């Protein structure tokens, strides 16, 4: 998602001001958590560590999830109800989603033995950090609930937000568990790679926290508590989240690194991606033997053989067909399920996601 998703139809001025307000709030949030929240002098060293963890891990991303809260709220509430306090709280809840993302990424990098993240060394790879990063992840998660309590405790939607964050966290952790079991490090077993398993991983590991969480938070903040309305939004947003991950998988192999900003490694890393799962469904036994001999290996020759196999199976054509079908499905879901919600909340996301190249 590009940042411009987040501000709907309100034009570039709103996008810039929301993004600027969001950036400006970070320093205040850090000061609140590390200077004013727990004034016990005995905690000075621990709070300094929390400051380091926040400053290194929370900024640096595209801010899509965080900015989607205020962007969605602008579609759900009339301008007269968007008071300064309401906007500030929406930005704060957005930062809580960014902290949740940072918590997941710190842990994910340790589990994946990753080296870099967002163009810098992973937190656990920094000198003197190591596996102490596990506790740092807990600090990031704990910070979410301190901020929500401080800023939203007196709001009618407070308990809804608490339940939303804890439920989404658990769903994401279950998705991560499925992912780890499906492609354990050093074990290449393509029989585990089924479309059913792939879709379950994507739904639970990515779609809930990246797509449903920000919009659901904005809905609760706008006073929309109906379980039916939330289920309707969920139908639409999980479809979008599934497509977004499939698109990510496609761009990992077929994207231009000069545009995407990263060199794809899903083949070398034995990832359960949409490309390999789709290939496994349509290939011959001979092609499967070739794939099993090359997938999950780091030498250039093996990677090129897998890519050649994908091309022989016409996966780019299948992907573009899937993209068109997914967009049609999404339009039907919006028409069917968003009868009482502004369609713009969903179409503004969709316009930025479909046909993207990075």
Distance between the termini: 9 Å
Strand order of the largest sheet: 1-2
Q: What is the β-strand count?
A: 2
Biggest sheet details: 2 strands, antiparallel
Report the mean per-residue pLDDT as an integer: 88
Q: Indicate the overall shape.
A: globular
**How does the helix and strand content classify structurally?**
mainly alpha
H-E order: HHHHEEHHHHHHHHHH
Helix run count? 14
Which residue ranges are poorly predicted, with pLDDT under 50 across at least 5 consecutive positions?
1-15
Write down the oligomeric state.
single chain
Indicate the percent of residues in helices. Answer: over 70%
The rounded Rg comes to 21 Å
Strand content: under 5%
Written description of the protein model:
With 358 residues, this protein is mostly helical. Helix content is 70%, strand content 1%. The chain has helices spanning 11-36, 44-57, 64-76, 84-112, 133-152, 158-182, 195-221, 227-254, 257-260, 274-282, 285-294, 300-312, 315-337, 343-353, and strands spanning 116-117, 120-121. A two-stranded antiparallel sheet has the order 1-2. The model is unreliable at 1-15 (pLDDT under 50).
Topology (SSEs and partners):
Elements (H helix, E strand, L loop, with lengths): L10 H26 L7 H14 L6 H13 L7 H29 L3 E2 L2 E2 L11 H20 L5 H25 L12 H27 L5 H28 L2 H4 L13 H9 L2 H10 L5 H13 L2 H23 L5 H11 L5
Antiparallel strand pairs: 1-2
Helix pairs in contact: 1-2, 1-3, 1-4, 2-5, 3-4, 3-7, 4-5, 4-7, 6-7, 7-8, 8-13, 8-14, 11-12, 13-14
Short overview:
With about 350 residues, the chain is mainly alpha-helical.
């Amino acid at each position: 998602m590009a940042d411009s998703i987040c501000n709907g139809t309100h034009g570039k001025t709103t996008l810039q001001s929301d993004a600027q307000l969001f950036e400006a709030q970070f320093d205040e949030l850090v000061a609140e958590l590390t200077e004013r929240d727990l004034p016990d002098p005995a905690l000075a060293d621990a709070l300094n560590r929390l400051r380091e963890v926040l400053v290194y891990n929370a900024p640096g991303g595209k801010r899509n999830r965080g900015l989607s809260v205020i962007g969605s709220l602008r579609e759900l509430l009339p301008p007269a109800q968007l008071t300064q306090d309401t906007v500030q709280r929406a930005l704060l809840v957005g930062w809580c989603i960014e902290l949740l993302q940072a918590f997941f990424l710190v842990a994910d990098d340790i589990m994946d033995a990753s080296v870099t993240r967002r163009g810098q060394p992973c937190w656990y790879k920094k000198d003197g950090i190591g596996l102490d990063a596990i506790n740092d992840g807990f600090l990031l998660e704990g910070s979410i609930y301190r901020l929500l309590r401080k800023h939203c405790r007196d709001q009618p939607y407070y308990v809804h937000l608490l339940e939303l964050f804890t439920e989404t966290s658990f769903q994401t952790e279950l998705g991560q568990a499925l992912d780890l079991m499906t492609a354990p490090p050093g074990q290449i077993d393509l029989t585990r790679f089924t479309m059913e398993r792939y879709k379950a991983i994507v739904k639970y590991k990515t779609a809930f926290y990246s797509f449903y969480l920000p919009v659901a938070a904005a809905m609760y903040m706008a006073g929309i508590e109906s379980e039916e309305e939330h289920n309707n939004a969920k139908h639409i947003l999980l479809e979008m989240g599934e497509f977004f991950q499939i698109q990510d998988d496609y761009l990992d192999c077929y994207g231009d690194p000069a545009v995407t900003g990263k060199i794809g490694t899903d083949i070398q890393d034995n990832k359960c991606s949409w490309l390999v799962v789709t290939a496994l469904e349509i290939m011959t036994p001979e092609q499967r033997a070739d794939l099993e001999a090359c997938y999950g290996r780091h030498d250039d020759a093996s990677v090129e053989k897998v890519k050649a196999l994908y091309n022989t199976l016409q996966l780019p054509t299948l992907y573009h067909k899937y993209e068109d079908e997914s967009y049609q499905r999404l339009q039907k879901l919006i028409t069917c399920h968003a009868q009482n919600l502004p369609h713009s909340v969903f179409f503004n996301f969709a316009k930025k996601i479909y046909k993207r190249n990075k």
